[in-house]
Amino acid sequence: MAAPMAGWALRAMPRICPAPSRALHATPACLKARAARVRVGKGDKAVTYERAHAPHHIAHRKGWLSLHTGNLAGEAGAAERAVEDAFLRRFLAGTFPGVLADAAVLKRRANLLVVCAVLARGLPPAKLCFLTGYAETLLTHFYKCPVRLELQTVPAAVPYKYL
Amino acid sequence: MRPLFSFRSARWGGEKMAARWLCRRLCQGSAFPVSYASRITQKQCFLPHSDLMGARLAGSHVDTQEPKTNPLISISDEPETLYKRLSLLVKGHDKAVLDSYEYFAVLAAKELGISVEKVHKPPKKIERLTLLKSVHIYKKHRVQYEMRTHYLCLELKYLTSSTAAVYLEYVQRNLPEGVAMEVKKTKIEKIPEHIREPVWDTLPQVEETEVKL
Question: Counting one residue from A and one from B, how many pairs have CB atoms under 8 Å apart?
Protein backbone atom coordinates (compact mmCIF):
# COMPACT_ATOMS: atom_id res chain seq x y z
CA MET A 1 0.00 0.00 0.00
CA ALA A 2 1.29 3.48 -0.77
CA ALA A 3 0.30 5.18 2.48
CA PRO A 4 2.53 3.21 4.90
CA MET A 5 5.49 3.49 2.48
CA ALA A 6 5.07 7.25 2.28
CA GLY A 7 4.76 7.36 6.06
CA TRP A 8 7.96 5.28 6.51
CA ALA A 9 9.89 7.50 4.12
CA LEU A 10 8.69 10.67 5.82
CA ARG A 11 9.49 9.31 9.29
CA ALA A 12 13.18 9.24 8.37
CA MET A 13 13.08 13.02 7.80
CA PRO A 14 12.52 15.45 10.69
CA ARG A 15 8.78 16.06 11.13
CA ILE A 16 7.83 19.08 9.02
CA CYS A 17 4.33 18.07 7.98
CA PRO A 18 2.24 15.06 9.14
CA ALA A 19 2.03 12.02 6.80
CA PRO A 20 -1.10 12.13 4.58
CA SER A 21 -3.41 9.18 5.14
CA ARG A 22 -5.45 7.91 2.22
CA ALA A 23 -7.15 5.10 4.13
CA LEU A 24 -10.59 6.28 5.27
CA HIS A 25 -12.50 4.13 7.80
CA ALA A 26 -15.97 5.62 8.30
CA THR A 27 -17.09 2.94 10.77
CA PRO A 28 -15.01 0.91 13.22
CA ALA A 29 -14.90 -2.79 12.26
CA CYS A 30 -16.88 -3.95 15.33
CA LEU A 31 -19.97 -1.90 14.37
CA LYS A 32 -20.50 -3.55 10.97
CA ALA A 33 -23.00 -6.39 10.64
CA ARG A 34 -21.51 -9.59 9.35
CA ALA A 35 -24.45 -11.98 9.69
CA ALA A 36 -25.38 -14.07 6.63
CA ARG A 37 -23.50 -11.68 4.34
CA VAL A 38 -20.82 -12.45 1.78
CA ARG A 39 -18.17 -9.72 1.99
CA VAL A 40 -17.13 -7.96 -1.20
CA GLY A 41 -13.77 -9.23 -2.48
CA LYS A 42 -11.72 -9.25 -5.65
CA GLY A 43 -14.57 -10.30 -7.96
CA ASP A 44 -13.62 -13.94 -8.44
CA LYS A 45 -16.10 -15.50 -5.98
CA ALA A 46 -19.32 -16.72 -7.69
CA VAL A 47 -22.28 -16.26 -5.37
CA THR A 48 -25.85 -17.57 -5.79
CA TYR A 49 -28.94 -15.32 -5.49
CA GLU A 50 -29.65 -16.70 -2.02
CA ARG A 51 -26.20 -15.92 -0.65
CA ALA A 52 -25.83 -12.58 -2.42
CA HIS A 53 -28.69 -10.95 -0.48
CA ALA A 54 -28.38 -9.91 3.15
CA PRO A 55 -30.92 -11.05 5.78
CA HIS A 56 -32.76 -7.73 5.78
CA HIS A 57 -33.93 -8.63 2.26
CA ILE A 58 -35.93 -11.62 3.56
CA ALA A 59 -39.63 -11.23 2.61
CA HIS A 60 -38.66 -8.49 0.14
CA ARG A 61 -36.21 -10.08 -2.30
CA LYS A 62 -35.70 -13.47 -0.65
CA GLY A 63 -37.96 -16.18 0.67
CA TRP A 64 -37.48 -18.42 3.66
CA LEU A 65 -35.29 -21.51 3.58
CA SER A 66 -37.19 -23.31 6.32
CA LEU A 67 -40.98 -23.18 6.43
CA HIS A 68 -42.68 -24.25 9.65
CA THR A 69 -45.17 -22.87 12.15
CA GLY A 70 -42.81 -22.76 15.15
CA ASN A 71 -42.11 -19.02 14.90
CA LEU A 72 -45.74 -17.88 14.60
CA ALA A 73 -47.33 -16.05 17.53
CA GLY A 74 -48.85 -18.55 19.94
CA GLU A 75 -47.15 -21.59 18.42
CA ALA A 76 -44.54 -23.81 20.07
CA GLY A 77 -41.61 -25.88 18.84
CA ALA A 78 -39.34 -23.27 17.25
CA ALA A 79 -36.20 -24.55 18.97
CA GLU A 80 -36.88 -28.18 18.03
CA ARG A 81 -37.43 -27.23 14.39
CA ALA A 82 -34.20 -25.21 14.41
CA VAL A 83 -32.20 -28.16 15.73
CA GLU A 84 -33.80 -30.49 13.17
CA ASP A 85 -33.00 -28.03 10.38
CA ALA A 86 -29.35 -27.76 11.43
CA PHE A 87 -29.00 -31.55 11.49
CA LEU A 88 -30.75 -31.94 8.11
CA ARG A 89 -28.49 -29.42 6.40
CA ARG A 90 -25.36 -31.11 7.75
CA PHE A 91 -26.70 -34.50 6.73
CA LEU A 92 -27.41 -33.29 3.21
CA ALA A 93 -23.98 -31.68 2.95
CA GLY A 94 -22.46 -35.02 3.93
CA THR A 95 -24.65 -37.21 1.73
CA PHE A 96 -24.13 -35.09 -1.40
CA PRO A 97 -20.59 -33.76 -0.93
CA GLY A 98 -19.65 -31.07 -3.44
CA VAL A 99 -22.83 -31.60 -5.47
CA LEU A 100 -25.23 -29.25 -3.66
CA ALA A 101 -25.70 -26.19 -5.84
CA ASP A 102 -27.68 -24.10 -3.36
CA ALA A 103 -29.08 -24.24 0.17
CA ALA A 104 -31.88 -26.77 0.61
CA VAL A 105 -35.44 -25.59 1.32
CA LEU A 106 -37.17 -27.48 4.14
CA LYS A 107 -40.97 -27.55 4.14
CA ARG A 108 -43.13 -29.02 6.88
CA ARG A 109 -46.71 -29.94 6.00
CA ALA A 110 -48.50 -31.54 8.96
CA ASN A 111 -46.43 -34.66 9.62
CA LEU A 112 -44.54 -34.61 6.37
CA LEU A 113 -41.06 -33.14 5.91
CA VAL A 114 -40.22 -32.17 2.33
CA VAL A 115 -36.59 -31.40 1.54
CA CYS A 116 -36.18 -29.56 -1.77
CA ALA A 117 -32.58 -29.43 -2.98
CA VAL A 118 -30.84 -28.36 -6.17
CA LEU A 119 -27.85 -30.47 -7.19
CA ALA A 120 -25.16 -30.05 -9.79
CA ARG A 121 -24.63 -32.93 -12.22
CA GLY A 122 -21.57 -34.42 -10.63
CA LEU A 123 -22.89 -37.92 -9.90
CA PRO A 124 -24.40 -40.53 -12.25
CA PRO A 125 -28.22 -40.85 -11.93
CA ALA A 126 -28.04 -44.36 -10.45
CA LYS A 127 -25.93 -43.12 -7.54
CA LEU A 128 -28.27 -40.16 -7.04
CA CYS A 129 -31.27 -42.49 -6.87
CA PHE A 130 -29.53 -44.65 -4.30
CA LEU A 131 -28.52 -41.63 -2.22
CA THR A 132 -32.07 -40.18 -2.22
CA GLY A 133 -33.53 -43.53 -1.12
CA TYR A 134 -30.87 -43.91 1.54
CA ALA A 135 -31.40 -40.37 2.84
CA GLU A 136 -35.21 -40.67 2.86
CA THR A 137 -35.24 -44.03 4.68
CA LEU A 138 -32.64 -43.03 7.24
CA LEU A 139 -34.27 -39.68 8.01
CA THR A 140 -37.75 -41.23 8.18
CA HIS A 141 -36.57 -43.73 10.77
CA PHE A 142 -34.63 -41.08 12.66
CA TYR A 143 -37.38 -38.46 12.87
CA LYS A 144 -40.34 -40.90 12.98
CA CYS A 145 -42.18 -38.93 10.31
CA PRO A 146 -42.34 -39.28 6.52
CA VAL A 147 -39.44 -37.48 4.86
CA ARG A 148 -39.55 -36.76 1.14
CA LEU A 149 -36.53 -35.62 -0.84
CA GLU A 150 -37.31 -33.60 -3.97
CA LEU A 151 -34.20 -33.08 -6.04
CA GLN A 152 -33.52 -31.02 -9.11
CA THR A 153 -30.31 -31.14 -11.11
CA VAL A 154 -28.73 -28.21 -12.92
CA PRO A 155 -25.59 -28.26 -15.12
CA ALA A 156 -23.69 -26.16 -12.57
CA ALA A 157 -24.39 -23.86 -9.62
CA VAL A 158 -26.06 -20.74 -11.02
CA PRO A 159 -24.06 -17.60 -10.15
CA TYR A 160 -26.01 -14.38 -9.58
CA LYS A 161 -23.07 -12.15 -8.81
CA TYR A 162 -19.29 -12.23 -8.55
CA LEU A 163 -18.03 -10.69 -5.31
CA MET B 1 -48.94 -41.81 7.92
CA ARG B 2 -52.25 -41.88 9.76
CA PRO B 3 -55.09 -39.82 8.29
CA LEU B 4 -55.73 -36.56 10.10
CA PHE B 5 -59.53 -36.93 10.47
CA SER B 6 -61.97 -39.77 10.04
CA PHE B 7 -64.38 -39.15 7.21
CA ARG B 8 -68.07 -39.53 8.18
CA SER B 9 -71.23 -38.52 6.43
CA ALA B 10 -74.34 -39.02 8.53
CA ARG B 11 -77.17 -37.39 6.58
CA TRP B 12 -77.74 -37.92 2.88
CA GLY B 13 -79.87 -34.82 2.21
CA GLY B 14 -78.46 -31.93 0.24
CA GLU B 15 -74.88 -32.93 0.93
CA LYS B 16 -75.10 -36.12 -1.11
CA MET B 17 -73.57 -34.68 -4.26
CA ALA B 18 -70.91 -32.71 -2.45
CA ALA B 19 -69.90 -35.59 -0.21
CA ARG B 20 -69.80 -38.08 -3.07
CA TRP B 21 -67.54 -36.08 -5.40
CA LEU B 22 -65.34 -35.04 -2.54
CA CYS B 23 -64.94 -38.58 -1.26
CA ARG B 24 -64.05 -39.70 -4.77
CA ARG B 25 -61.35 -37.01 -4.95
CA LEU B 26 -59.95 -38.09 -1.58
CA CYS B 27 -60.15 -41.78 -2.44
CA GLN B 28 -58.19 -41.31 -5.63
CA GLY B 29 -55.04 -40.24 -3.87
CA SER B 30 -53.45 -37.21 -2.33
CA ALA B 31 -55.72 -34.21 -2.39
CA PHE B 32 -52.98 -31.72 -3.23
CA PRO B 33 -52.15 -30.19 -5.67
CA VAL B 34 -55.84 -29.75 -6.45
CA SER B 35 -56.59 -29.62 -10.14
CA TYR B 36 -59.86 -27.81 -10.64
CA ALA B 37 -60.18 -28.96 -14.25
CA SER B 38 -60.48 -32.62 -13.27
CA ARG B 39 -62.87 -31.74 -10.43
CA ILE B 40 -65.19 -29.80 -12.73
CA THR B 41 -65.33 -32.68 -15.23
CA GLN B 42 -66.21 -35.06 -12.39
CA LYS B 43 -68.99 -32.73 -11.30
CA GLN B 44 -70.36 -32.48 -14.85
CA CYS B 45 -70.47 -36.28 -15.05
CA PHE B 46 -73.15 -36.29 -12.38
CA LEU B 47 -75.60 -34.03 -14.21
CA PRO B 48 -76.91 -36.41 -16.93
CA HIS B 49 -77.00 -39.12 -14.30
CA SER B 50 -79.72 -41.33 -15.77
CA ASP B 51 -78.19 -41.33 -19.28
CA LEU B 52 -74.77 -42.31 -18.02
CA MET B 53 -76.14 -45.05 -15.78
CA GLY B 54 -77.62 -46.95 -18.74
CA ALA B 55 -74.56 -46.34 -20.94
CA ARG B 56 -72.13 -47.46 -18.23
CA LEU B 57 -73.88 -50.68 -17.27
CA ALA B 58 -74.76 -51.78 -20.79
CA GLY B 59 -71.37 -53.16 -21.72
CA SER B 60 -69.84 -53.82 -18.26
CA HIS B 61 -70.33 -56.80 -16.01
CA VAL B 62 -71.47 -54.78 -12.98
CA ASP B 63 -73.92 -56.55 -10.75
CA THR B 64 -76.91 -54.19 -10.70
CA GLN B 65 -78.55 -55.93 -7.75
CA GLU B 66 -75.85 -55.09 -5.23
CA PRO B 67 -75.37 -51.33 -4.78
CA LYS B 68 -71.75 -50.25 -4.59
CA THR B 69 -71.04 -49.02 -1.06
CA ASN B 70 -67.99 -46.91 -0.48
CA PRO B 71 -66.19 -48.18 2.65
CA LEU B 72 -65.20 -44.61 3.55
CA ILE B 73 -68.80 -43.41 3.88
CA SER B 74 -70.80 -44.48 6.93
CA ILE B 75 -74.52 -43.83 7.39
CA SER B 76 -75.91 -43.50 10.88
CA ASP B 77 -79.29 -42.53 12.26
CA GLU B 78 -78.13 -40.35 15.12
CA PRO B 79 -79.04 -36.68 14.72
CA GLU B 80 -76.25 -34.40 13.52
CA THR B 81 -74.78 -31.66 15.66
CA LEU B 82 -75.46 -28.28 14.11
CA TYR B 83 -72.94 -25.49 14.10
CA LYS B 84 -74.08 -21.90 14.11
CA ARG B 85 -70.62 -20.61 13.23
CA LEU B 86 -67.32 -22.13 12.16
CA SER B 87 -64.48 -19.68 12.72
CA LEU B 88 -61.10 -20.35 11.08
CA LEU B 89 -58.16 -18.23 12.14
CA VAL B 90 -55.24 -18.72 9.77
CA LYS B 91 -51.79 -17.47 10.77
CA GLY B 92 -48.71 -17.06 8.61
CA HIS B 93 -45.52 -15.09 8.07
CA ASP B 94 -46.19 -14.31 4.40
CA LYS B 95 -49.16 -12.12 3.47
CA ALA B 96 -49.17 -13.28 -0.18
CA VAL B 97 -49.52 -16.92 0.90
CA LEU B 98 -52.48 -16.02 3.14
CA ASP B 99 -54.18 -14.08 0.33
CA SER B 100 -53.87 -17.06 -1.98
CA TYR B 101 -55.18 -19.39 0.75
CA GLU B 102 -58.14 -17.06 1.34
CA TYR B 103 -59.12 -17.31 -2.33
CA PHE B 104 -58.82 -21.10 -2.16
CA ALA B 105 -60.84 -21.51 1.07
CA VAL B 106 -63.63 -19.17 -0.04
CA LEU B 107 -63.87 -20.95 -3.40
CA ALA B 108 -64.03 -24.34 -1.67
CA ALA B 109 -66.79 -23.09 0.66
CA LYS B 110 -68.81 -21.74 -2.28
CA GLU B 111 -68.42 -25.01 -4.20
CA LEU B 112 -69.68 -27.00 -1.21
CA GLY B 113 -72.59 -24.60 -0.75
CA ILE B 114 -71.43 -23.25 2.61
CA SER B 115 -72.43 -19.63 3.29
CA VAL B 116 -69.49 -17.42 4.17
CA GLU B 117 -70.44 -14.90 6.83
CA LYS B 118 -67.32 -12.75 7.03
CA VAL B 119 -63.73 -12.75 5.76
CA HIS B 120 -61.56 -10.24 7.55
CA LYS B 121 -57.90 -9.69 8.33
CA PRO B 122 -57.06 -8.90 11.96
CA PRO B 123 -54.01 -6.62 12.34
CA LYS B 124 -50.59 -8.27 12.27
CA LYS B 125 -48.55 -8.92 15.42
CA ILE B 126 -44.84 -8.18 15.48
CA GLU B 127 -42.63 -9.83 18.11
CA ARG B 128 -39.32 -7.96 18.48
CA LEU B 129 -36.11 -9.14 20.12
CA THR B 130 -33.10 -7.01 20.97
CA LEU B 131 -29.98 -9.13 21.50
CA LEU B 132 -26.30 -8.46 21.98
CA LYS B 133 -24.44 -8.41 18.69
CA SER B 134 -21.21 -9.85 20.08
CA VAL B 135 -20.53 -13.12 21.85
CA HIS B 136 -18.49 -11.42 24.57
CA ILE B 137 -18.82 -7.83 25.95
CA TYR B 138 -19.71 -4.87 23.64
CA LYS B 139 -22.90 -4.09 25.49
CA LYS B 140 -23.56 -0.97 23.45
CA HIS B 141 -23.84 -2.83 20.17
CA ARG B 142 -27.04 -4.76 19.80
CA VAL B 143 -28.95 -6.41 16.99
CA GLN B 144 -32.74 -6.43 16.56
CA TYR B 145 -34.92 -9.17 15.08
CA GLU B 146 -38.64 -9.25 14.51
CA MET B 147 -41.17 -11.96 13.71
CA ARG B 148 -44.35 -10.89 11.95
CA THR B 149 -47.53 -12.95 12.16
CA HIS B 150 -50.28 -12.06 9.69
CA TYR B 151 -53.84 -13.24 10.38
CA LEU B 152 -56.82 -14.19 8.27
CA CYS B 153 -60.23 -14.88 9.83
CA LEU B 154 -62.81 -16.86 7.90
CA GLU B 155 -66.30 -17.20 9.41
CA LEU B 156 -68.78 -19.69 7.97
CA LYS B 157 -72.33 -19.98 9.21
CA TYR B 158 -74.90 -22.72 9.68
CA LEU B 159 -73.14 -26.01 9.00
CA THR B 160 -73.87 -29.59 9.89
CA SER B 161 -71.12 -31.63 11.51
CA SER B 162 -70.54 -33.78 8.41
CA THR B 163 -70.26 -30.72 6.15
CA ALA B 164 -67.88 -29.16 8.64
CA ALA B 165 -65.81 -32.37 8.76
CA VAL B 166 -65.60 -32.56 4.96
CA TYR B 167 -64.73 -28.88 4.55
CA LEU B 168 -62.17 -28.86 7.35
CA GLU B 169 -60.45 -32.01 6.12
CA TYR B 170 -60.18 -30.63 2.59
CA VAL B 171 -59.01 -27.23 3.66
CA GLN B 172 -56.51 -28.57 6.21
CA ARG B 173 -54.94 -31.13 3.90
CA ASN B 174 -54.16 -28.25 1.56
CA LEU B 175 -52.76 -25.95 4.23
CA PRO B 176 -49.45 -24.51 2.95
CA GLU B 177 -46.22 -25.08 4.88
CA GLY B 178 -45.53 -22.38 7.45
CA VAL B 179 -49.23 -21.62 7.92
CA ALA B 180 -51.17 -22.53 11.07
CA MET B 181 -54.93 -22.72 11.60
CA GLU B 182 -57.16 -22.46 14.67
CA VAL B 183 -60.74 -23.65 14.42
CA LYS B 184 -63.59 -22.54 16.70
CA LYS B 185 -67.00 -24.16 16.39
CA THR B 186 -70.18 -22.69 17.89
CA LYS B 187 -72.73 -25.44 18.49
CA ILE B 188 -76.51 -25.04 18.50
CA GLU B 189 -78.16 -27.07 21.28
CA LYS B 190 -81.72 -27.51 22.48
CA ILE B 191 -82.65 -25.76 25.71
CA PRO B 192 -82.35 -28.29 28.60
CA GLU B 193 -85.59 -29.72 30.00
CA HIS B 194 -85.30 -28.17 33.44
CA ILE B 195 -85.18 -24.55 32.18
CA ARG B 196 -87.62 -24.83 29.30
CA GLU B 197 -90.53 -23.61 31.39
CA PRO B 198 -90.15 -20.62 33.76
CA VAL B 199 -89.84 -21.70 37.39
CA TRP B 200 -92.80 -19.62 38.58
CA ASP B 201 -95.13 -21.49 36.19
CA THR B 202 -94.16 -24.91 37.51
CA LEU B 203 -94.52 -24.22 41.25
CA PRO B 204 -97.94 -25.04 42.76
CA GLN B 205 -100.29 -22.06 43.15
CA VAL B 206 -100.08 -20.62 46.67
CA GLU B 207 -103.56 -19.56 47.83
CA GLU B 208 -103.68 -16.00 49.03
CA THR B 209 -104.78 -15.83 52.64
CA GLU B 210 -106.98 -12.88 53.37
CA VAL B 211 -105.82 -10.83 56.28
CA LYS B 212 -108.73 -10.01 58.47
CA LEU B 213 -108.44 -6.76 60.23
Answer: 54
